[in-house]
Input
Amino acid sequence: MVLRTENIVKQYACHLALDNVSIEVPQASIYGLLGPNGAGKTTLLRIINQITAPDSGEVYFDGRKLQENDVYSIGYLPEERGLYKKMKVGEQAMYFARLKGLTKHDAEKNLREWFQKFEIQAWWNKKVEELSKGMAQKVQFIITILHNPKLLIFDEPFSGFDPVNVKLLKTEILNLKKQGATIIFSTHNMASVEEICDYITLINKSKNVLSGQIDEIRHNYGDNVFEIDYRGETDKLKENIGDNYLILDSSEQKFFRKIKIKATVKEARNTLLSRIIKDVEIVNFNEIIPSMNDIFIKLVEENK
Amino acid sequence: MKKILLVIKREFIIRIKKKSFIIMTVLTPILFACLALVPALISQIKSEKEKTITVLDESGFIGNELKDMRTIKFVYENKPIDSLKNNLLRNKYYAVLHIEKSEENTTGNITMYSENAVSLDVLNVIKTQITILSAQTKLKEYDISVEQITKILNPNLNIKNRLINEDGNEKESNAAALTGFAMICGILIFFIILMFGIQIMRGVIEEKSSRIIEIIISSIKPMHLMLGKIIGVALVVLTQILIWIVLFALIIFVAQSQFSDIVNQLQNYINAVSFTKMFICLILYLILGYLLYASMFAIVGSAVDNESDTQQLQAIASVPLMIGYFIMIVVSTQPDNPLAFWGSMIPFTSPMVMLARIPFGVSWFEIILSLAILTATFILFTWIAARIYRVGILMYGKKASIKELIKWIKYKR
Output
């Protein structure tokens, strides 16, 4: 575990921002922190970054308690982000890099490399106010990862980025993971969660309501709904399916028929298959796994 | 510590490089120099041509005794006034001065004929000369010399104020110079604190409104960021003052003759005031006063989202400063006013008030006590500011009231 939080509680004047939140972030994984607005995600990220302190609970980094010097091993791209408008891009990036503990030489070397990679060398001597928003976002991204942190934290990284930069960002995040970095990011964008996250935690109303590996979660939240495409007689099929299944939907396609069923009693898939395969030809057998989006909405609604 | 240095360096360089800083730094002394130089230059330009004034004295009081002035020469004619007037129009003379005879034993009507208006300066000088000459003539009748009468009327009185200290040493006091110097120091402190305090406030607001703050404080503690900012701006202040001193010295050195008045006056100040005491206090009160107010302005900056919201809260910092300024003005003319003592002890006003008092004699004990109170308050306020600051910089969307600021002090982190 690169990072572990244990029973974090954070109380603000009039509301509880985090209520006993524990998460475990494995090495070299991409960890999604999901939750509706105001659930407490940003507070948790701020606690990990030592911007605020928890009322109780503990954060462990690399197996020991989080220390002040750990800021050098963490890169943080906050949701509310900006740059000094009147400062030159290069100068500014150097400043942030040096605040993160890089020597002047290393800072400049790393920066030149990244500027080359993103093809923005020409911007080195420009003032930030002359940059487009997309360009400024690239600079912010570089500043976040420049000191090769072990742990990267992105708070809503895709909000406000244009699609081209979102793609670039995703590629770079996956690259960083390949190089061994661990990444936590909070987001609303469920499609990107399914695309790149290995683990997720869903925070709702200050509580950790769901944690785990993303595929596991999706399977666990499957409602045992199956979709079967077949050729043959519908009545025979229905008979073979048995009483333990509800027929949700049945339709005629051009070349085959389609039926959607839901199990009321749990049964191994092969048992069902062996029964129905007798009288019809199975074209397609598919368990319907809910998307993260569905799970998210379902859990949040349930908790209302 | 290394990070504070980085912040100090950034805050310093970014301000030094600003156009407004360069303009302020270079232009201020030049402007002062111009204010002092222009009158001198103008009077030099005036002396381009000598003018002649023809005098027709019918009274007999003047004779031919009018003394020539720098640009004016007097000639005496005894022609009828009309022909002189004609000559004037033919541009022979600059002006004609006609002194008529009168029945009583005095000068009659005096008229100055000229094509263009004669300047008030010239008229005044001529008036004085005529007054003296006519007086002289009359005094002769009573057999009194001019010297005698001037001695009686103008006995060259001069009250010296000698200050005696406990060791029995005497020293000349120069009330005018003292008041002047004290005022200059107090005003300097007032403006520097106000100007750079507002710069700190703006710097804090900039980081907040452009949303840089969260990026920065994931690498540096808010307290360190704030200290770095305050110290960085302090260095800017010191740099500016240093440059001013050098430029002033340079200008005065180059144009020594034009500034003989100022140099003399400065020498007066330096002689009259215990200069080392004054200078040490100026620097100490400037730095400590600045540090105290800087943390107050940092609080204001951290409590708002943008500059237009600062009006109300800014009063926390600017009102005490103004009060100090007004007490200073009172004290510089009434050094024994009870306001003087209390004003120079209360830390919010002491940087200005104490400086106004020092020239009139303040014991080292009082100065040290006042400095100690100021230092303690500045440390307390920096601590309070740091606590409000770390909460305030992450609060968006609402204008904090003073009540809320006090609540923030108690927050854990």
